[in-house]
Amino acid sequence: MTDQDYMKRAIEMAKKGGGWVHPNPQVGALIVKDGRIIGEGYHVKYGQLHAERNAIASLRESAEGATIYVTLEPCCHYGKTPPCTEAILEQRIARVVIGSRDPNPKVSGKGAAILREHGVRVEEDFMREECDQLNPVFFHYITKKLPYVVMKYAMTADGKIATKTGASKWITGPEARAEVQQIRSRYMGIMVGIRTVLQDDPMLNVRIPGEKSPIRIICDSGLRIPLESQICQSARQYRTIVVCAEERQEKKAQLEVMGVEVLAVPSVDGKVDLVRLMHLLAEKGIDSILLEGGGTLNYSMLREGLVQKVIAYVAPKIFGGETARTPVAGAGVQLPDEAVKMKLSEIHKAGEDLVLEYECCI
Ligand code: AOF
Ligand code: ZN
């Protein structure tokens, strides 16, 4: 096995933490001695041991003189756990092969430097691109202090998200809908506008046993959310934040009794200031948000440059209808040149539906 093979295995380990570690990164580690894997681990859950320490905990023999492959630079700070650099030095590991650099200012470059100072051979940027792909969310969140936002919608081949009567169940097939359930469990928050709640009365949860549901965030400038909505009724079960621009004390109190968190955010033209909101959500530790509409909120988020990725499900059917809703509405641009620009990054099929993934170019 080569260095590449070992790092690939560390990457596979790291992926197992997906959905459970945020707002921390997904990290994997592998310890190799005399051509044998003697330890492996990954960051399993937020607040628990880091990948390096889990790999060390799995050792059944001395790691003296061994190589550790880590997908992210080992930390050197006292956070929820003591520094991983210390654990590596205690084990007398001789060589550390690092994939991604850690943009966290508490670590950034210092982890590798400490190891070198103690005579450890350190190789950085090894398969960096592959390792970086594990953590687009963490990198965005830690450097911009904003959540990584993924806008997702399902539409017909003629670009409609509902028929002219507003009916939207269902556009895509069962495979696509199952995939969306998986996606929901990957992000820390899920956000929709109030109109979506009024129209569809959604639950916005994950119905896969053993998987985590995201924090539900409802953008509701005028605090119109009905107390009888499924969202309010299930707020004790699934964390729910209702964001408003004007605080109506009585309604706020009623919502809070039901377990809803009400977050008042300064407004622009009577609407929630989305940039401020995103910063506030990041301060609450929310590193990622799946944005599920509607069209008005989608457009505002895109225009503010707050969306990093778009996932479009396209069903092989056509609704027609001039008034049938489309995924992105709002004011719209005047000229093609003013478009929100994106880059196609992935394409696959889910049953009969097509899935297009784009990175936003901001
Ligand atoms: C992880 N898991 O496997 C590694 C991390 O809050 P703490 O104490 O868990 O520290 C989190 C920071 O540690 C994180 O921002 C990153 O810079 C570094 N490395 N974090 O959660 C890991 N290796
Ligand atoms: Zn660490």
UniProtKB/TrEMBL annotation:
The keyword DNA damage does not apply. Its EC number is 3.5.4.26, 1.1.1.193. Binds 1 zinc ion. The active site is at 52 (proton donor). Pathway: Cofactor biosynthesis; riboflavin biosynthesis; 5-amino-6-(D-ribitylamino)uracil from GTP: step 2/4; Cofactor biosynthesis; riboflavin biosynthesis; 5-amino-6-(D-ribitylamino)uracil from GTP: step 3/4. Its cofactor is Zn(2+). Keywords: Hydrolase, Metal-binding, Multifunctional enzyme, NADP, Oxidoreductase, Riboflavin biosynthesis, Zinc. Zn(2+) binds at residues 50, 75, 84. Gene3D superfamilies: Cytidine Deaminase, domain 2 (3.40.140.10), Dihydrofolate Reductase, subunit A (3.40.430.10). Residues 1-123 form the CMP/dCMP-type deaminase domain. This is Riboflavin biosynthesis protein RibD.
